[in-house]
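Attaching the record inline, Q. Sequence:
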Amino acid sequence: MFLRRSNPKPLAAINNTSVAEKENVPDGDKDSSTANRANTSTSEYLAQKHPGLLRLFGSTVCTVSIAISYLFSSKEPVVQQYLGEKLFEYPHEEVDFYLPQLINMYIHIPSVSAVIQKYITARCSASVNFSLLCAWLLSAYIGDQMRLSKKPNDAVRLLFDILYEKYKPKICYKPTLPSDSTSVGYRDHVPVDEEEEGTERSNQKHRSNISEFSASISTDETNRQHRRHVKLCLGDLNSGHAFDNNCTCFEHGYGFRESECTCNAPRLSPEREFLAALINIGKQLPQVPTKEKKTQHLISEIKRLNMNLPARVWIPFCSLPHHIVRFAYTEATVLNSRDRAPYIVYIEIVLCDDIFVSPLPPKQSDSKLRWTRSEENIHHPMISANGNNVDYNNCETQSLDAESTEPYRMSINDEYTDIWSTSEEINGDEQPSPKRNGHRSHHLVLSSYHSDTQSIRSVESHTSQQEIMPADIRKRLSEAKLTGPITFDRDPDDPSAATLKEPWDKKEQRIRQSSPYGHMKNWRLVAAIVKCGDDLRHELLAYQFMIKLKEIWKNESVPVFVRPSNILVLSNNSGLIEPILNAVSLHQIKRNSNLSLRDYFLHEFGTETSEQFLNAVRNFVQSCAAYSIVCYLLQVKDRHNGNILLDDEGHIIHIDFGFMLSSTPKNLGFESSAFKITQEFVDIMDGLESDMYKYYKILIFRGLIAARKHMDQLMPIVEIMQHGSQLNCFSKGNVTSGLKERFHLNMTDEQLEFYVEKMVESSLNSLTTKVYDTFQYYTSGISK
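Structure, as predicted:
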């Protein structure tokens, strides 16, 4: 089933509308009359030679997937030209999904590069983010071609044109109406407490603001003039302005703001330097001997980055516009890897309307104090590193300097304690002393229920009492020992286990309380994995394939679960990965809990008859079926327990798709099974004769039927990327023909169902899966 776009243009409108009218094309392109004549002549040619194609391209069923597929397969220049112009009609996010395919065609197919050049340059002239994505992908894919031919081509010239900002994106200021509830402006940088009390103080400040207005105007202009003469320090982490391009066009001057950036400040360099700094840290870590020292070095380098924040930089796979204000540097952790040192960072951001126009929040110092009300923290108990509640009432007072605090330190909630946290006051106004709010304490009292019976009652007030019998208390205590989430202690050999096991909402609350920016209502926390030394283009290809599969299964109502991780390719050996939250690997579960997977499920989700446990098992089965299909179609290898995650809802999630299609780890070819399914997985489903195991096989069958039905949406993703590619996954034979065979178009539904039964049985009894797990256990210490 094809996806339909809303409000499609009539064919006549397509034929008579120029590309220049649809987009702001750069100077030097043909004028609108020339474009109209070219477009009309293209349509007339198609109407005479290929009327069926013209009807298809002009219909609502012609999705981006179809246009990209025909752009690749067609050899007629007129068809390619028509499709190159049609790209302007699609929403940007739909075209951006196929940007790797467009870049690969631009590099390796000259006839296609000529027709999509106009689209790429027009988008680069309108968007900084699109320019960066194109530059990174061009850099990654050009490297393969340059090894074969030293002669520069159009792709190399396009890369340098983008990097040297020949197509400089236009940045304009668009005022947001105050009634727009979705806008994020300076008011969102004001602390929550100040905003609540702002109404009371507004009348008092109004008169002083009027008298100070002229002085503030002159101060703003002085600051602007000063910044214009500040030396450009892009990339210098010791300067404090490593990610600042010195643009002051949108800063207030004489009470007004420019409507368009007119300076010559570099647009792309701040973000490029920011991500380059993260990659440079990743390149240094493998040289550090132990994981403990790696973590120490990582924290010290992340602190250097904080010196240059806030800045107009962002995480590209975070969809909402934002500014990065700070790294929670004490949370940065090196992940498990034998040969390399990927690491995860937690990044504090503030949402904004426009990255380049919205004002940056004032820089906050970690050593300053901010007053907050005790109610802000009253619901957040003290949590130790292993997740246990801790009573700090008798502990000595520690320093209020945030840099000296432990990562897991939280605020103390007491009946009459005023809560203080590290931050800097926004306006420099002195905060009033907080009011002491008495909170009713909860007491356990003994009261006589009968003459020979005593019960423990929980008293919240004098009017409400609830009886709790001693037998109930003993029962609850015994159940608490057998069930409930298991906490992981910090392990020097695997520091990431405790970090990843902590629930995201608790981590976010804890970091927000200790952050000098946490009082801003538009504050958010995001995470990113930085990886160096690996080619993430394999991961990007798998991500695209899974996204399309997920879309197909949703449209076909197949109840399976897949969670692709967003990938940002920066070069042919580095990039960023969006981490899976609230999930730990099977290796970490076995190492830290010393339990089988089924026993771990019982501890995490309750007894076998509880609703939470049954939901977790259902989630496990649905996700296991989805990833069995993914691993079979893409022939994903290296499926040891370190590359399989389990989240807090019971879903199995596969990561690390560096070995797939024709590539295997060290070319050993250990894993010959279609996918990984072990006896422990079957035990969670309650055995071979259980309904859940039968449900698992049914889901694989239904998922393959749906994928086979929409194979035309999946094949171009891989087929286009194989053309001219030097990736390892395409190194052996015709990969796309093998992928097409795995859809089994020649089988009936009954034959495919029987084939799935045999495939699951052979994978479950696969000797090579057990051999590979044993190999990883003895060579890398990964639990079997």
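Residues 192-228 form the longest helix (37 residues). The longest strand covers residues 523-532.

More tomorrow.
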